Every structure is written in C-alpha cells, then in structure tokens.
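Help needed: design a sequence for this.
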C-alpha cells in the first residue's frame, strides 16, 4: 500500500479510503492546488493476472476517450515504479451506497428518479459506443455532494464493461479479454437473468435490468430479491415476480410500472434505455 506523502505524478497521497476486491483507493491532493483526487491502484496480487490487468487498462482507455457529465472523469493514468497500474480520477465524496445506508428506509421518489436519470443517461451514452457496463450497483454510482438533495450522480467502475468492436468507427482501442461462457460477471444482487446464464452475451438490456434493481433499492430501501445462496438468488432473478408492492404508496404508479418493466425476465420485454431516460425525466 502507498504511505501518506507518497507522490504519483503531481499528487500526494493523503489517506487510504477504500480497499476493494481488486483495487486500493486513496484520497490524494494536488501538490500545487491541494485539491483532492481519487487514486485507484490495482492490488499487487492481481498484477500477475493478465486478464485483470487488461480489464483495468481497458477501463482507463474507455474513460480517457469518453467525456460525459455523469461518468467519472479520468485525469491521468499510468504504472507505478513497483509495477501496479493506476488511475487518477476526480474526487467524489459520496455514493448511492452511502446515501442508502444513511437513509435506511430508501430515498424519496423524486430523488431516486433524478439519480436514476443521471445513471440512465450515462448508460445510454455508453451503449451508443457499444459499451455495456455489466456491474451497476450502489457502490459504483458516486455522488458529487454529501447532501443527497443536491448531489449529481457519476457512473464509475467500468472494469467489467463489455466493449463491442463491431462498428468501424469505434475509436476505443482495448485489449482482448477472453471470457468463458460459464463465468459470472457482475454483482449477484443486481445481475440480469441473462447474466446468470451467459454473461458473455449480455447486451444493453442487462444494464436496463440492473438499473431497475438499483431503482427498486433506492425506492424501497431494500433489494427486490434476497437469498444467501447464489443458486437460490439466481432462481429468484430468473423466475420470481418482483415485489413491486414493497415500493410503498409514495412511489407514483408510473414509476412503479417503469421499475416493473425494467425488471422483465426476458431482455426483449424491457424498455430501451432511451425510453427509460424519457420516462424518468417526466417523473422528477
């Protein structure tokens, strides 16, 4: 781990703020302005895994080529002298995960709809570039303010993103990652049915489903499906009707209906992301 005071480019490490499964995240400060940034460093243990390193580098390439007001901004990237690759990202002080933990009972419908709109517009832009996120969850939706009533959302962590290069105009040069058809990619609580079956083939519809789970979570303060064993959780996502009655009376019928459609078991039955954006904008 990097000690406080260590320098990376023009930034000085202030403190370790998070240890994830793949990365350490630090708060660092500009030597010149003292403004904060997030320094994301791949854990040493994964540096020998070519697939993990390639995913990390691909995330940096996508962020470098892609500017969007609701996608976290990449400031710089590179490799530390000791070997691990890193990214320097804009500093965002909170997340939907933290907001949900603070709220306990869920968010007000207008706030949930506004944050979901931010995420949906980011996903729509990614889909327009043939990129599927595949790992949408509260921890990966960052907020630019701790006051949830004022915060704007930024979509983060494209480490599991699927970049389809069918378009001749595609300008994101990414390394190839071979994914076995039986490998689960994503966070189980938020994965679409098709991700449980064959994550490699999941398309934009999977992000619609995951956003539906996230929107349900923001409204109800709990997940639509919960089970201790992955097999049981898979069965719920594949076959169980979402408990829309748990969204509460304060949730407008139009928003409840949208969540239900987004959680459709068959990808073709879900609304497209453009429709999701349009409907969410009308509900704010």
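Sure. Designed sequence:
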């Amino acid at each position: 781990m990097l000690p406080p005071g260590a320098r990376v480019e023009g930034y000085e490490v202030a403190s370790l703020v998070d240890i994830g499964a793949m990365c350490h995240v630090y708060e660092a400060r500009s030597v010149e302005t003292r403004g904060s940034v997030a320094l994301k460093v791949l854990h040493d243990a994964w540096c020998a895994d070519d697939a993990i390193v390639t995913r990390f580098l691909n995330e940096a390439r996508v962020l470098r080529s892609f500017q969007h007001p609701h996608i976290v901004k990449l400031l710089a990237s590179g490799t530390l002298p000791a070997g691990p690759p890193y990214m320097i990202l804009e500093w965002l002080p909170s997340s939907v995960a933290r907001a949900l933990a603070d709220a306990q009972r869920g968010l007000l419908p207008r706030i949930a709809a506004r944050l979901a709109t931010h995420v949906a517009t980011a996903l729509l832009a990614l889909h327009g570039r043939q990129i599927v996120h595949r790992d949408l969850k509260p921890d990966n939706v960052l907020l630019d303010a701790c006051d949830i009533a004022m915060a704007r959302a930024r979509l983060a962590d494209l480490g599991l993103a699927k970049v389809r290069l069918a378009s001749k105009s595609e300008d994101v040069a990414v390394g190839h990652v071979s994914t076995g058809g039986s490998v689960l990619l994503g966070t189980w609580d938020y994965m679409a049915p098709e991700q449980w079956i064959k994550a490699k083939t999941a398309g934009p519809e999977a992000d619609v489903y995951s956003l539906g789970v996230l929107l349900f979570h923001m409204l109800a303060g709990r997940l639509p499906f919960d089970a201790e064993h992955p097999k049981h959780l898979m069965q719920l996502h594949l076959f169980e009707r979402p408990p829309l009655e748990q969204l509460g009376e304060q949730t407008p019928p139009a928003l409840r209906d949208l969540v239900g459609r987004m959680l459709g078991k068959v990808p073709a039955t879900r609304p497209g992301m453009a429709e999701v954006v349009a409907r969410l904008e009308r509900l704010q």
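The helical segments are 50-65, 96-103, 109-128, 193-198, 204-220, 230-239, 253-262, 273-282.
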